[in-house]
Design a protein that fits this description.
The complex is a heterotrimer of chains A (about 240), B (about 300) and C (about 325). With about 240 residues, chain A is α/β, with parallel strands linked by helices. In chain A, about 40% of the residues lie in helices and about 25% in strands. Classes of the chains: A alpha/beta (about 240), B mainly alpha (about 300), C mainly alpha (about 325).
C-alpha cells in the first residue's frame, strides 16, 4: 500500500486556552474522498484548520510524506492543499473572475492557469456569465460553487471542504456533491470533506471518520458506517 | 451681469484649488490605502511625508537634480514605509483599533523627533519642480507649477489604479485588505501585503510633501501638519473606504476651500483650516461613509 | 479566612495609597509638588476618559477640548464674575458634562475610527473657536487671573491655610488636585462595579448582544460621554486654577492625545494602573530630556516609549499589575 497523501497522527489543537482536538489520527489516500462526521463542536472544522495551519496545533501532520505541522497557511497552499473554509471564504468585494484568478495566485505557469480556467468553467458554466459580477452578490449556493471552482484553480492535490452543505438548499447541495464526485472519478481529485449532514457525506465518500469531543470515535468504509447501529442512531436519524 | 463676472479669475482660482487639492489627494490616498489594509487611520502619515521632504532637501543640497532626488526619495520612503510596518505595526496587527491608533500617534512623535534632530529648525526651501513662469491658456494666465502639480498628482493616481486593477499584485493587495483570513488560504502572504501597502502609502506621502514644499517660500518641520488635516478632510469627504473618493474628495475640497477663501471675505486665509475641520465634522455627522462610501455594514 | 485576608490586604493597600497622598509633599520639593499637581489634572481626565473608551469602547481624541470647556468656565467665572477660583470647580464639571452629553448624542451615529476622527477634528478646531468668541474668552490673549481678578486666586499671598494647617500654594494645589482625583477615582470605581459598569462593558464587547440583553445603548453611551465630560471639565478647571491663566494654546489637540495615551498606557478597562498612566504622560518628556537635550531627541524617546509600552504591554500598566497580582489573587479567591 503506498503512502497516504495526508496523514494525521495524534494531532492536538487549541483555541487559546481551550483544547479542541485531543489526539486525532486519520489518513487520506490519493484519489479518495474521505468524510469527517460528528456533532457540532466535535472538532471537525478544527481538524481541517489543523491541516491548513489556521489554528495552533501539535502532533504529526504529513502531506505526501513531508511534515506540514509547522507550516503557515500560505505555505500549505503552495504545497497544493486547497482549503475551502466554512462559510465559503468568498472574497465578496471582488468579482467572480478575480476570485477565480486568486485561486491560482501561487502558481507561476500562466498558460496552464488559463487552461485551467477554461476547464473549471466547463464544470460551472454559469460562472462564466457572471464573471464580472461582485462575488458577494451571488447566492449562497453559487458562492459555494465559486469556492470550489476557486479551489480547483490551484490544481490542488488535496481539497479540504468544510461544511459545504451549510445553509444551502438540498438540490444545490446534491449538485455540488455530484460535481465533487465527478471530479474525483474523472480527475482523481482527493477530497477530505467535513460534514454535519452524515447521510450526504457517507453517500459521497469512500471512507469516513466520526469525531466526538475532539477524538476519533469510529472509522471505517462509508458502507460499514452506514450500517453501524450507533452511527445510524446518532447521525443518520434512524 | 454675466459678462461682468471675472471668469478668468474663477478659472485661475479653480486651477489653484485643483493644484493644492491634488497634493492633498496623494496624502489622502495614502491614508485610505492604509485604512483599507490595516483598518486604522495613520495619524503619522503627514509627519512621515515631512521627513521624506527633508530627505529630498538634503539630497538636492548635496548636488542631486530635483528629479533625481525625487525618485531616490520616493524609493527611500517606500523602503521606510515597509520597514516601519514590519517593525512597529506587525506586532500589533491583531490588536484592537485603539492600540494601533496609539502606535501611529507614537510615530508622530518619533518622526517629528527624527526630523528635528537631523535638521535644524531654520527654514529652508525646496526648488520648484516646474518653472514658476505663468503660461497663457485661452487668454488666462495659469502657473506652470500648478498645472504640473495637477499632472503629477493625477499621473500617480492613474499609475496606482493600473497597479490595483490590472496586476496580480494589485489583486492580492485588494484581497488582503478586505478578506485577510481568506486571502491567507489562497497562499497570499497577507502580512507582506500590509507592508507593501505601507510602503506605497509612504511613497505617496513623500510625493505629496515634495509637491507641497516648493509652493511655499520656505518650510520647516511643521510643513505637513495642515496638509494632514486637509487630506483627512478630503478622505472623509470622499469616503475613507474609497480610493477614488479620496482623490475626488480632496480635489473638490481644494477647489471649494480656495474659492470660498477668494470670494467670501471673512474667511480669507485664516479660516481655511477650520473650514476643512467643519467639513470633516459635517460629513461625519450627515453621511459618515462619505460621497463614495456605501452604507456602513455592522458585523455581528 | 482567606476572604478576610483578602479584604484586609485591600484595606491595607487603600490605606497605603492614602498615606502616600498625604505625606508625599513632605518628601519632595515645592517645585515637584507643582508637577505632581499637573499630573493629577491629567489623572482626573484619564479616569474620565477610561470610563468612556475603556468601558463603552468609544474612542475620543477630543477630551482636551472638554477640558477647555471646564477651564474656560472657571476662568470666565473668576475673571468676569469674580468668583473665588476653587468654588468654580463644580460648575466647570457640570459644563464639561453638558458639552460631553451634547457630543455624546451625535457620537451615537459614529463608531470606532469615525468617532476618533470627529473628536480629533473637534479638538483641532477648539483653539480657533476659542479665539473667535473673544468677548467671553479673551481671544488669543486668553484670561489671566492675576491681571484681572487676583483676589479670587487661592494662595495669592503664597501660602494657603486649610483646616488650620498652613502650606505653600504648590502644596495646596497638589492636595486639592489629588484629593479630587482620589474622590473621582472612588466614584468611578463604584460606577464601574455597579450596574452602569456592567452595561458599559457589555456595550463595549458586543453592542448587539448587549441590546438583546436589554441594555439601552443610546442612554448608556451618552451617559458615559457626559460622565467623562464632567471629569474632563473638573480637570480643566483645576488646570486653570494651577496655571492662573487660560488661553487657546492651553488646550490643543496634543492635550487630547496625551489623555488618550495616558489612559491606554495606564490600562483601558481597568482602574488601578491609571495613576501610572498619568505619571507616564507627565514625566516622560522630562525623563526623555535627560537622555539628551539635543533637539528632537525628547520627542523621539517619548514616541518610542509610547510605542514600546503599547506593544509590550497591551493591557497597559493595569494589565501588568493584574498579571503580577494573579498568583496572590488566585490564591486568595480559590477554594482550598
Amino acid at each position: 500500500m503506498s503512502e497516504p497523501l495526508l496523514e494525521l497522527e495524534d494531532v492536538e489543537a487549541r483555541y487559546g486556552p481551550v483544547k479542541a482536538l485531543h489526539g486525532v489520527s486519520l489518513s487520506v489516500a490519493e484519489g479518495e474522498i474521505v468524510a469527517v462526521l460528528g456533532a457540532n463542536g466535535a472538532g471537525k472544522t478544527t481538524t481541517l484548520r489543523a491541516v491548513s495551519g489556521t489554528v495552533g496545533r501539535s502532533g504529526k501532520i504529513a502531506f505526501a510524506g513531508r511534515s506540514i505541522s509547522r507550516r503557515s497557511p500560505e505555505s500549505v497552499t503552495r504545497l497544493g492543499i486547497a482549503h475551502v473554509p466554512e462559510g465559503r471564504g468568498t472574497l465578496s468585494a471582488l468579482s467572480v473572475r478575480d476570485n477565480l484568478r486568486l485561486g491560482a495566485y501561487v502558481r507561476r505557469d500562466r498558460k496552464a492557469v488559463r487552461e485551467d480556467e477554461q476547464r473549471v468553467l466547463a464544470y460551472f458554466p454559469w460562472l462564466d456569465d457572471r464573471r464580472d459580477q461582485q462575488a458577494g452578490t451571488l447566492s449562497g449556493g453559487e458562492q459555494q460553487m465559486l469556492a470550489l471552482a476557486r479551489a480547483l484553480m490551484l490544481r490542488p492535490r488535496l481539497v479540504l471542504l468544510d461544511e459545504p452543505s451549510l445553509g444551502l438548499a438540498p438540490m444545490v447541495v446534491a449538485e455540488m456533491f455530484r460535481i465533487v464526485g465527478e471530479l474525483n472519478e474523472r480527475e482523481g481529485l482527493t477530497v477530505l470533506v467535513v460534514e454535519q449532514n452524515a447521510t450526504l457525506a457517507l453517500g459521497a465518500s469512500a471512507r469516513a471518520y466520526v469525531l466526538e469531543v475532539g477524538r476519533v470515535a469510529l472509522s471505517g468504509t462509508s458502507a460499514e458506517l452506514r450500517r453501524d447501529e450507533s452511527v445510524r442512531r446518532s447521525y443518520l436519524g434512524y | 451681469m454675466l459678462l461682468a463676472f471675472d471668469w478668468s479669475q474663477l478659472a485661475q482660482q479653480t486651477v489653484i484649488g485643483l493644484s493644492s487639492g491634488g497634493t492633498w489627494a496623494l496624502l489622502a490616498l495614502a491614508i485610505v490605502l492604509i485604512y483599507r489594509s490595516t483598518g486604522v487611520v495613520n495619524f503619522a502619515q503627514g509627519e512621515m511625508a515631512m521627513l521624506s521632504t527633508f530627505v529630498a532637501w538634503s539630497l538636492i543640497h548635496h548636488g542631486l537634480s530635483y528629479w533625481a532626488a525625487f525618485f531616490v526619495t520616493v524609493a527611500i520612503s517606500f523602503g521606510g514605509g515597509v520597514g516601519l510596518e514590519r517593525a512597529v505595526i506587525r506586532p500589533v496587527e491583531r490588536a484592537p483599533v485603539l492600540t494601533v491608533v496609539i502606535v501611529t500617534i507614537g510615530l508622530v512623535f518619533v518622526m517629528d523627533g527624527i526630523a528635528r534632530w537631523g535638521w535644524s529648525s531654520e527654514t529652508r526651501s525646496l526648488p520648484n519642480a516646474f518653472s514658476a513662469r505663468p503660461i497663457e491658456i485661452a487668454g488666462v494666465a495659469f502657473s506652470i507649477q500648478d498645472l504640473g502639480n495637477i499632472a503629477v498628482s493625477l499621473g500617480i493616481v492613474a499609475l496606482l489604479w493600473l497597479l490595483f486593477r490590472f496586476t496580480k499584485l494589485g489583486l492580492a493587495l485588494r484581497a488582503s485588505a478586505v478578506n485577510p483570513q481568506e486571502s491567507r488560504l489562497l497562499g497570499i502572504r497577507v502580512s507582506w501585503m500590509l507592508a507593501l501597502g505601507w510602503g506605497l502609502a509612504a511613497a505617496m506621502g513623500a510625493i505629496s510633501g515634495m509637491l507641497t514644499a516648493p509652493a511655499l517660500a520656505s518650510f520647516d518641520q511643521n510643513l505637513m501638519q495642515p496638509v494632514l488635516l486637509y487630506a483627512l478632510a478630503g478622505a472623509v469627504l470622499g469616503g475613507l473606504e474609497s480610493p477614488l473618493g479620496a482623490v475626488v474628495g480632496s480635489l473638490l475640497l481644494g477647489v471649494f476651500i480656495n474659492l470660498i477663501g477668494t470670494y467670501v471675505d471673512w474667511i480669507g486665509t485664516d479660516l481655511r483650516l477650520p473650514v476643512a475641520l467643519a467639513v470633516i465634522l459635517g460629513v461625519l455627522l450627515v453621511r459618515p461613509t462619505g460621497l463614495f462610501g456605501g452604507t456602513p455594514v455592522r458585523r455581528v | 479566612m482567606r476572604r478576610a485576608l483578602g479584604i484586609g490586604l485591600w484595606v491595607a493597600a487603600v490605606a497605603a495609597g492614602l498615606a502616600v497622598y498625604v505625606f508625599l509633599p513632605r518628601l519632595m520639593s515645592d517645585f515637584h509638588s507643582r508637577d505632581l499637581a499637573h499630573a493629577g489634572v491629567l489623572f482626573i481626565a484619564i479616569v474620565g476618559l477610561n470610563m468612556l473608551t475603556g468601558y463603552t469602547g468609544q474612542i475620543s481624541l477630543g477630551h482636551g477640548a472638554l477640558m477647555a470647556i471646564g477651564g474656560y468656565t472657571t476662568a470666565a467665572l473668576v475673571v468676569h464674575e469674580h468668583w473665588r477660583d476653587v468654588w468654580t470647580i463644580p460648575l466647570a464639571g457640570i459644563a464639561g458634562g453638558v458639552v460631553g452629553l451634547l457630543i455624546g448624542i451625535p457620537a451615537l451615529r459614529l463608531s470606532g475610527l469615525y468617532l476618533a476622527l470627529a473628536t480629533f477634528a473637534f479638538a483641532v478646531a477648539m483653539p480657533s473657536l476659542l479665539r473667535k468668541f473673544s468677548g467671553l474668552t479673551g481671544g488669543t490673549q486668553g484670561l489671566r487671573f492675576l491681571e484681572s481678578a487676583p483676589f479670587q486666586v487661592t494662595g495669592l499671598k503664597g501660602t494657603v491655610t486649610v483646616f488650620g494647617h498652613s502650606m505653600t500654594q504648590n502644596h495646596f494645589l497638589y492636595y486639592l488636585t489629588w484629593g479630587i482625583g482620589i474622590v473621582g477615582f472612588a466614584v468611578a470605581w463604584l460606577i464601574v462595579r455597579g450596574g452602569f459598569g456592567r452595561a458599559f462593558r457589555a456595550l463595549r464587547d458586543s453592542e448587539v448582544a448587549a441590546v438583546s440583553a436589554g441594555v439601552a445603548p443610546a442612554a448608556n453611551k451618552t451617559l458615559a460621554f457626559a460622565l467623562s465630560g464632567v471629569y474632563a471639565g473638573v480637570a480643566g478647571s483645576l488646570l486653570a486654577i494651577q496655571t492662573e491663566i487660560v488661553n487657546p494654546l492651553s488646550f490643543t489637540v496634543v492635550l487630547s492625545v496625551l489623555i488618550v495615551v495616558g489612559a491606554v498606557v495606564g490600562g483601558l478597562g481597568s482602574l488601578p494602573g491609571l495613576v501610572l498612566g498619568a505619571l507616564f504622560v507627565e514625566y516622560l518628556p522630562t525623563l526623555a530630556g535627560h537622555f539628551s537635550t539635543r533637539a528632537g531627541v525628547p520627542d523621539f524617546v517619548y514616541g518610542a516609549a509610547i510605542i514600546l509600552v503599547v506593544i509590550l504591554l497591551p493591557g497597559g500598566a493595569g494589565g501588568l499589575l493584574r498579571r503580577a497580582a494573579r498568583p496572590l489573587t488566585s490564591w486568595l479567591y480559590t477554594r482550598p
